[in-house]
Amino acid sequence: MTTPSTPYQQPQSQPPQQQPQAPQQAFPSQGHVPHQPVPYASPIPARRAHLGDALASEWTKLRSVRSTMWSLGVMILLMVGIGLLAAAVVAATRDAVGGDVDTTGENVLTLGFFGVLLSSLCVMTLGVLTMSSEYGTGMIRTTLTACPSRGRVLAAKALVYFAVVFTVSTLTTLVVAALQTTIIDATAPATSEWLRATVGVSLYLSLLGLLSMAVGALIKHSAGAITVMVGLVLVPLVLAMFMFSRSLRGVQDFLFAYSIPSQLIQFYGTAFSDGGPSGWTPLWIILGMTAIAMAGAYLSLDRRDA
């Protein structure tokens, strides 16, 4: 029998038969231990974050940005420079007229009002930037990722800001008041007058800054929030100056008495008009305004996206 010569006539080769494999053992043989991965153990102890961590974070952010140094530096410069300049002018005028100028302790402390009023603009600017700058740079997303509790973030910012501004303003007003008394060589004011002109003024400025921070959280825009705060401070007093109609006399008196500059000068025992708040009452007024604004800021921060 002849073998086919063409490839097409070649018989197809059968595939090699596969040898049956021995069944694998379901369990390892005796003495064999399978490899088990070792879980990673961090050397850093794990714990729940608390308010102290948020305070440390906000303190690091506040002291590391340039706006803080510039704002506080200009605030100190205005308080010291204008306060001492006013005292020097009063002392020179008294010497020129032969000592006929009244230089009681109360008037000496009042000289610090002009520097404090201008420095309030720096306090408001820093308060707005403490909150709104994170929205401008997008840092607020990182902040809320690291600390999902938005109420804790707002509380930490408020506490750190209040502590810094109150400490700096209290020390500065104490130094200015002491130097003014020395320059004019006037009678030392009473303890209550010192307390209102230093601690009271510093508390008012710090609360005004917290009010600005709340407005920054509500508006989320630095320029817009600063404009709103400057208008809140200056517009009522300016409007009152141009209300000449008798029908607006009641509104004019109210604006003169309850505008922020009028409340601030009350701590020095002076008033722009009669019938307004006196003593420590302006402090309670600004405290109520700040509490309402901070409540609104919390609701805004908690319910709106970053």
Write the SSE topology.
Layout: H1 51-64, H2 66-96, H3 105-110, H4 113-137, H5 139-146, H6 150-184, H7 191-219, H8 222-241, H9 249-258, H10 260-265, H11 281-303
Helix pairs in contact: 1-6, 2-4, 2-6, 4-6, 4-7, 4-8, 6-7, 7-8, 7-11, 8-9
Structure characterization notes:
The protein has 306 residues and is mostly helical. It has one domain (55-303). 68% of the residues lie in helices and 0% in strands. The protein has eleven helices and no strands. The chain has helices at 51-64, 66-96, 105-110, 113-137, 139-146, 150-184, 191-219, 222-241, 249-258, 260-265, 281-303. Helix 6 (150-184) packs antiparallel against helix 7 (191-219) and helix 7 (191-219) packs parallel to helix 11. The longest helix is centred in the middle third of the chain and has 35 residues, at 150-184. The N and C termini lie far apart (91 Å). The mean pLDDT is 82.
* Percent of sequence in beta strands: under 5%
- Contiguous helical run count: 11
Tell me, briefly, the overall form: globular
Helix percent reads 55-70%
Total beta-strand segments: 0
Backbone structural class: mainly alpha
Low-confidence stretches: none
Average predicted local confidence, pLDDT: 82
Calculate Rg over CA atoms: 36 Å
Helix and strand run: HHHHHHHHHHH
Q: How far apart, in Å, are the first and last alpha carbons?
A: 91 Å
